[in-house]
Specification:
This protein is mainly beta. It is built from no helices and seven strands. It has strands at residues 9-13, 16-24, 27-34, 48-51, 56-61, 64-69, 73-76. It is globular, with a radius of gyration of 13 Å.
């Protein structure tokens, strides 16, 4: 399956530029560029996977902060 950038749904939410790629009715991939701070959130409906493509930051998972950098992989279970 190939989903091109032109097929993605683009939106801006606060400091995030999001390109949403529809894969199936139950699964969507997102490419997110953050300029600033992403607010804390809960993932009640699905597990989430993040791969850091560039830069660095801090992820807070279950109340614990993790420093992340380019090529790190983060799994966040639904909560």
């Amino acid at each position: 399956m190939l989903i091109t950038a032109s097929q993605s749904k683009k939106k801006i939410v606060g400091p995030m530029h999001i390109a949403e790629y529809p894969i199936t009715k139950d699964f969507t991939g997102n490419l997110i560029t953050i300029n600033g701070i992403h607010p804390l959130m809960k993932s009640r409906r699905e597990n989430r996977i993040y791969i850091i493509l560039t830069g660095k930051g801090i992820f807070i998972v279950a109340g614990k902060g993790f420093t992340v950098k380019k090529h790190d992989f983060i799994f966040i279970p639904k909560n």
